[in-house]
């Protein structure tokens, strides 16, 4: 497993933060019909009970938005991924179909409100990760977004640099069809509430759709 630590800057800005990481051996595929049936069901439910205005009041999303403010970022300009995914669905758009691992992480994020980093573990440099705050001009290539200004964003760093923020993960460690080991990190800016359930949901979906034994869960703070 990984040694995941939280910097003093994050502890000061977000004292309630708790995290969970799921590490598992997996087999990725381009598309999974059963998974997309679950996504379609959630989409229907979301559209009957939420609006684009109400999303930001969902407790986990609200806590993540507040963490952005405390770290120095405007959450209306750089939205947490869980909020951005829900907004996309509520605008009548469909989710991007990427691959099974990415799609199932997106489903858990949608269901729980947690922003979740999904990484190809074999592309992470070293076994130590630290959650800190992004610095001015810190290099970071967001997946499908190009160079991303991560100043004031919470960011996980390996020994080479940033690999993930709640807005976007880095191209360098992104998952693909070749991925054989996944590290999924659930960010609990609202504390422990719902954290265990989100991590176990990832495990369950990996077992159902990614030929996994479920892997292990590691909690950190």
From TrEMBL:
<dbReference type="GO" id="GO:0003723">
    <property type="term" value="F:RNA binding"/>
</dbReference>
<feature type="domain" description="B3/B4 tRNA-binding">
    <location>
        <begin position="62"/>
        <end position="211"/>
    </location>
</feature>
<dbReference type="GO" id="GO:0004826">
    <property type="term" value="F:phenylalanine-tRNA ligase activity"/>
</dbReference>
<protein>
    <submittedName>
        <fullName>B3/4 domain protein</fullName>
    </submittedName>
</protein>
<dbReference type="InterPro" id="IPR020825">
    <property type="entry name" value="Phe-tRNA_synthase-like_B3/B4"/>
</dbReference>
<dbReference type="InterPro" id="IPR005146">
    <property type="entry name" value="B3/B4_tRNA-bd"/>
</dbReference>
<dbReference type="Pfam" id="PF03483">
    <property type="entry name" value="B3_4"/>
</dbReference>
């Amino acid at each position: 497993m990984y040694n995941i630590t939280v910097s003093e800057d994050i502890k000061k800005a977000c004292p309630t933060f708790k995290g969970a990481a799921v590490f598992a051996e997996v087999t990725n595929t381009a598309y999974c019909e059963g998974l997309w049936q679950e996504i379609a069901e959630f989409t229907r439910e979301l559209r009957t009970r939420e609006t684009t205005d109400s999303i930001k009041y969902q407790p986990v999303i609200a806590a993540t938005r507040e963490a952005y403010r405390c770290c120095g970022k405007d959450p209306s300009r750089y939205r947490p991924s869980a909020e951005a995914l829900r907004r996309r669905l509520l605008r009548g758009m469909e989710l991007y179909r990427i691959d099974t691992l990415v799609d199932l992480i997106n489903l858990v994020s949608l269901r729980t409100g947690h922003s979740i980093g999904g990484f190809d573990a074999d592309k992470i440099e070293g076994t130590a990760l630290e959650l800190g705050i992004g610095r001015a001009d810190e290099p970071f290539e967001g997946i499908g977004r190009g160079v991303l200004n991560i100043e004031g964003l919470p960011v996980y760093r390996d020994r080479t640099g940033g690999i993930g923020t709640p807005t976007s993960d880095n191209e360098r460690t992104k998952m693909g069809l070749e991925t054989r080991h996944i590290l999924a990190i659930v960010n609990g800016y609202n504390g422990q509430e719902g954290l265990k359930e989100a991590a176990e949901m990832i495990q369950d979906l990996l077992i159902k759709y990614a030929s996994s034994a479920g892997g292990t869960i590691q909690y950190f703070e």
